[in-house]
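Regression test attached.
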Amino acid sequence: MAVTCLLEVVPGETFEGFCLVKEVKQEKTKKGDPYLNVTVAKKHKMVACKLWNNGFGGKDVEEILSIFSNGAMLHIAGDASEYNGQVQMTISAFRQAVQGEVEMSEFIESAPESVESMEVEIRAFIDEIKIPILHQITSELFEENNKYFMYHVAAVKMHHNFRSGLAFHTLSLLRIAKNICDQYGEAVNRSKMYAALTLHDMGKIIEMTKDTAAPEYTLFGQFLGHIQIVNQMIDRKLVFIRSQRTVSLEEVTVVYELMNIISSHHGPLSNGWGSTAEPITLEAHLCHMIDNIDAKINMISKATVDMKEGEVQKIWGLGKIYKAKGLDK
Amino acid sequence: MAVTCLLEVVPGETFEGFCLVKEVKQEKTKKGDPYLNVTVAKKHKMVACKLWNNGFGGKDVEEILSIFSNGAMLHIAGDASEYNGQVQMTISAFRQAVQGEVEMSEFIESAPESVESMEVEIRAFIDEIKIPILHQITSELFEENNKYFMYHVAAVKMHHNFRSGLAFHTLSLLRIAKNICDQYGEAVNRSKMYAALTLHDMGKIIEMTKDTAAPEYTLFGQFLGHIQIVNQMIDRKLVFIRSQRTVSLEEVTVVYELMNIISSHHGPLSNGWGSTAEPITLEAHLCHMIDNIDAKINMISKATVDMKEGEVQKIWGLGKIYKAKGLDK
Amino acid sequence: MAVTCLLEVVPGETFEGFCLVKEVKQEKTKKGDPYLNVTVAKKHKMVACKLWNNGFGGKDVEEILSIFSNGAMLHIAGDASEYNGQVQMTISAFRQAVQGEVEMSEFIESAPESVESMEVEIRAFIDEIKIPILHQITSELFEENNKYFMYHVAAVKMHHNFRSGLAFHTLSLLRIAKNICDQYGEAVNRSKMYAALTLHDMGKIIEMTKDTAAPEYTLFGQFLGHIQIVNQMIDRKLVFIRSQRTVSLEEVTVVYELMNIISSHHGPLSNGWGSTAEPITLEAHLCHMIDNIDAKINMISKATVDMKEGEVQKIWGLGKIYKAKGLDK
Amino acid sequence: MAVTCLLEVVPGETFEGFCLVKEVKQEKTKKGDPYLNVTVAKKHKMVACKLWNNGFGGKDVEEILSIFSNGAMLHIAGDASEYNGQVQMTISAFRQAVQGEVEMSEFIESAPESVESMEVEIRAFIDEIKIPILHQITSELFEENNKYFMYHVAAVKMHHNFRSGLAFHTLSLLRIAKNICDQYGEAVNRSKMYAALTLHDMGKIIEMTKDTAAPEYTLFGQFLGHIQIVNQMIDRKLVFIRSQRTVSLEEVTVVYELMNIISSHHGPLSNGWGSTAEPITLEAHLCHMIDNIDAKINMISKATVDMKEGEVQKIWGLGKIYKAKGLDK
Amino acid sequence: MAVTCLLEVVPGETFEGFCLVKEVKQEKTKKGDPYLNVTVAKKHKMVACKLWNNGFGGKDVEEILSIFSNGAMLHIAGDASEYNGQVQMTISAFRQAVQGEVEMSEFIESAPESVESMEVEIRAFIDEIKIPILHQITSELFEENNKYFMYHVAAVKMHHNFRSGLAFHTLSLLRIAKNICDQYGEAVNRSKMYAALTLHDMGKIIEMTKDTAAPEYTLFGQFLGHIQIVNQMIDRKLVFIRSQRTVSLEEVTVVYELMNIISSHHGPLSNGWGSTAEPITLEAHLCHMIDNIDAKINMISKATVDMKEGEVQKIWGLGKIYKAKGLDK
Amino acid sequence: MAVTCLLEVVPGETFEGFCLVKEVKQEKTKKGDPYLNVTVAKKHKMVACKLWNNGFGGKDVEEILSIFSNGAMLHIAGDASEYNGQVQMTISAFRQAVQGEVEMSEFIESAPESVESMEVEIRAFIDEIKIPILHQITSELFEENNKYFMYHVAAVKMHHNFRSGLAFHTLSLLRIAKNICDQYGEAVNRSKMYAALTLHDMGKIIEMTKDTAAPEYTLFGQFLGHIQIVNQMIDRKLVFIRSQRTVSLEEVTVVYELMNIISSHHGPLSNGWGSTAEPITLEAHLCHMIDNIDAKINMISKATVDMKEGEVQKIWGLGKIYKAKGLDK
């Protein structure tokens, strides 16, 4: 009997069920016959499929491509085999899902915590910002953008590239920062850390498209990068506050200090990783290092989830990674 | 008879005349007696002086330091000798200049062209910007800031670190750009080049202090750098225009493109030289390369002005530089 | 009806016309049948073609390869389709062009200006060299080599890799240099600039093969590089002049200074880009920077010519490049 | 009246009290008279002193040097002045402290927590290591070496260069790691983290001399570095355990994995910072990043302790650092 | 008639003979039929083969894979053609070799000298080590490990990746070192050089698997690298000697100096090439440089063996390499 | 009684004898009195001296400077003391040496072998060059330049900066090369190695001044570097040979290959160390590596000659260096 959940498909099985289309490429056989390379997915599981010409069901290429479009929900049937150690499937039948037939959220990868609880926790961190102007700016920018912020990815390809990845990444940094602040006492300024970390990647809601299925860099993102974008958001907020009330030089200074922390959260300029100013405070250095920790944990966890215990693999951007086995692992 | 113009002082001469104090350091002899190392200047000529304790004229150190303050205009007498190939002077008498006794402008190094003619020429370039929103932004930012812009230095230490150095450097780039645009025709967008070059270093009026005698980096300059500062000025201008009239997506895009050209005018991020985004247009690449040309010409001219013909010297940031001699040089 | 000019071929059309063979690779299908991957071209337009075994017309592979040879002019028929966003063609018929049937010059990409006018203009620049020994060396080397110089490519792959690309690139640099010299007056030595720029890449006529259809590095080019080759040409000329008349030390010095400018025109040694000495004069630094400007303008123009407006593409050696749209572009 | 505690000395005051000799250099005046440059200290406060020839009290240089030796406790009298913004003192009288006259611990800078409480807390961490062979190795190495470990410096010059600096640094990392482990759950292996962090710098007890007043690199330290030294300690322990009982392959593997974490705690080899193997587990990457955080916090705290609020200074290894002022700082 | 020795196979010939299986990959045709890509070898000659489904002889994929396993000796028949300038073969028949039918040693690439003579010569070098503790350690480690040492490869892919490559490489370095020592006299310590060179790569017998047909990195190799592994072997030997007799501080020091030479034989840490300590003696610097010479000679010889005279090819890790022709070559 | 040989001077002694002036700097005391810092030398021993104003013997500064000129041979008297661990001397009397009073060769550091024997040995190597055109070029260039070549230094500051250092360095490389050629047989071309090594640094006779007491870079040396200079010498020789007889393409090729070996003897261009072409033969790679070996041996020997056994010192360009003690050292 056929497997009906894509997460359970293994070579040798027949599959009949729903899946999300992630990527489609039209190809030609050496004889010139058109066929499709399609990647279908459920959550983090991706399966490469072939749809041969004789499986087009009499449709021409244009019709087929209008069905197999990026982000479409389809019901397909196919036989799973193995190719280069990966599952591969030849599609024998397909149809579009009917409205209401499937729950989209069961197919999209999301942060492992609920949007609601994360939102509550981030707000609690914002409430701990004791420098009024930083509190006001952070709070207002969060509230004005949180419809996008809470659902956005944190990356096109690298770490946290899933629904609500941006919020989850932001919250993870705040949690690490809380512990560092608790541990080191007055050496670290908690208000500046919480404000900077809440905002540090907020520019990504403009740097990358909002489509969480397959996010891409926007033109504006490529012109300025997410650091300059969020600094612009902060500056506009500062201008607005100034139009409402007198802002002291001290307050302006601390807002610029906040922008410096954000400007330098990709490390020193000499890295060439996109910081827009040198870090010149402890908080700026910390913001970069904490960001690194969460990014690396996410990248390595993602990279090792499908590895076998005891295996070593080369991972892009990390070098070789070993997945432990034995003892308590 | 004593020399009266600092520009003419050579070892062996006695000097009696006016000079500007550029730098003062209080020192102690091995015996513990206080004395001053003072650098005095007229235009580009700097002379290192000693004011020994026995030359204090009965004043205590605090009084002396209130006279020999950074930027003060003094009348001094002294004997010039040579030390390590440089003129050095021991001050034997001094007094503060009386109001109106000397013309400050004869002592400060300035751009080799008049502020008035440079201002006219820059405005003419701005008039050539044919994209209306770029013209408006550039023109308004220039007019609103030109009181500072026209007199500001372009650097603390490196190239164009003199009065109106910023305006002169900006104008030099515009002139080079004009010729490049004339030569390459439609390949290069003249309006974007003129807008970007006029504005590219305008953030320096906030990044560095306005005192042209001895400019320093400001705190805001160190938080953001001049690139982010001018991008902020442009963004505020864009927000203002939007509050007055509808701005099309096309127009916003071209303003962000302008910010990209400025963001990347220190070259690719991998240089680590302070660009805040990668250059992604021909105009962005050109802006960086033209900036380089004018900077190098200024640095080498400055470095070689006091070298002898036929000499080779090591210059900071340039390596060895040879000053040609013979033939037409 | 079939398209007859390769420049107009788009997917879906049938083509019947002439084309130049740029590259040929013999391949085998999985079944072991031989077939050819052929790149044909007209001017800058390249089309990838397949010639299947059943299209060999009974000829064996050797015969086919003798017809589809690099640089051959053929008349072919084929159907154009699309593959990975590129035109691709399956060749159904072919024959060699008859002598005189087509004009080769209509198929080869060339500099956008006539050889004659460029030659006149370069000579005019050489006439402006006012240091006699530099004038003599530059003029004689230009005249002795101009048969090759005026038609040679400037590169195997990168910028100006077309017929007369070397002359066009050289002339472009001279034009930029003229404007710089006009703008900066005595700071820059016009004679040295013109001599150095005229000669700087002349070694390429030996570094690369003269076949402008598909130039390659020569063995001598790989042994020495074009910088050492042209310095050798200059040195031999100097030896010759010395055999005719007395040459003063001043003159020898200025010739060595010329060789230094050329030696360092790929920038400081630390770049690792092939300079053979450090730049130690303003002219040497300028020569490198001006070379860069023309190279980048050519590379970006070439890279964007086939991009759509509003598009961003990754270009080898340049990173991402955006092609502007809207307003005056 | 004279100040008696070195911590309170400011320019203009006379000092009479005890101090520790940190560094001594014999110099000569231009006339050839010998004198000493002496650095004396109490806790973190260092004061540069001059002992002129006429203050030698009739002793010759050898006698003087035997009194002013590195680490000696002296009672001195002197007048404090200012030199280059630093306190400087001319010594007018001196004598060696009598045994029991002063409490050494009041003069040496130490970790801000008591050795006893730190030792208890580190042991509690070791008890949390749930992989038996890692627990045994870590526990035994800690117990065998803790007489040195608990009092040793963590560096010659950089961060944590004070008494018990090694223990304090180690404990700080364990505390950060605990929070990371709590936050990320099973993604991070707590036992491996605690074992690796406890041991990671233990090799420093051999790499640097035990004299906490002025530690130096030992010859063995320079031959192998602290990473190879501690790996050797672990290996010897493994050999010993094997001589007592059978050790499974699984156990050997986890011990080597531990050595890999330690080997790579200075980051990837390409950094050139002294790692002896590439990090190939999440724990290895984490160990490096956590080490960085504590080091940077310590370095910046140390660098800013004597800066004024609002000031920016260039700090070796960190670039410019700003000390915040105003608001909650 | 069919060729029977794989070394003689050229395109167009039929082959029938024995060969060693070096690599096997299961693939599928576009139609989904399974087939194998097999690399077979004799000595240094590698031939890529296809075994199509219709050549499986009725066996299923599992059976086929159990025959075509890595390291298997097979008798095959096939037709050789050319593909991309390389010989390629389609296998038409195959069977496993019978025990004793072929001599394995005729199929494996080995060092060009006999194991016996190399062993004698290395022992003679060890006998020249005049520092007793270095002699004892080197000699005992060599004798205890020489069963593996004499047959092991020196690399997975790079230089000396053949049977006894490790011994041959080691011996080559000893020979170069002998001449250097003879030439420079007392400047170089012969005993330290011989001890260090004999041991420098001995850790590879644990870093890489012992299977000389297709060596791979072991897990332990990836945890520590061959430098730390051999230093561990030396340290264990030192511990053992100490358990037998008193070892003076001088002796311990020279053993640690030996470990430093080995630790740094990949050059300075800043290279990022895997040294585990900085070189701090002449012998350490020399060990690295001599290692380089033998490695480069082997790499270039290997790379050029199949090139034609007069040809230039790009070689991984070396750049372009020219194979001389003419004259005495 | 006074010491009469500078080599034997230690602190506390009085010296009366001859010495060579190596460096002179005019200074002023804080009071403005002139004095001299003079470095005098015998062989490798350098002693820093002071000549105070009261020791001028009534002469004025100009007279004094005409006596204490660079390279002068003087008889001086002085008292030696210690300063910063170095001998320092105050000159109490001085006079110029009379013609014939001292043997200059006893004061200049020279290669440790005689010029005559070195010349014989280099000629013997040249005789082993079996490619006629390489033999002719090498032999003629050696004979034409050997008056300078045999006495020239090999460096201004680094390794082999002594009389005949160039010849000694060249010969050392030839000796290493001979052994490498003997060991590796046909893999290395002996003729090319000998020709390239004999000539590789010959350009230094023009790059640096001929004064072996205090060599400096010449202007021509800075314009071209010694590599381009010797390649020019080779090219002129080739041109000359061509004027005498027909030279085959094969012969020209091998001469250019020789120039490639020399061009690349500072390693790959990416090093930025001054190679003028990439190494593309084994001989080119070897030439660089052998050059390195002799340079490092010389630098480390020179650096350690005055160190105490057991000491570690930081050496410019080498990092820390340890001088072994104990056992056989």
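Expected vs. actual: identical. The domain at 6-106 of chain C is CATH 2.40.50.140 (OB fold (Dihydrolipoamide Acetyltransferase, E2P)).
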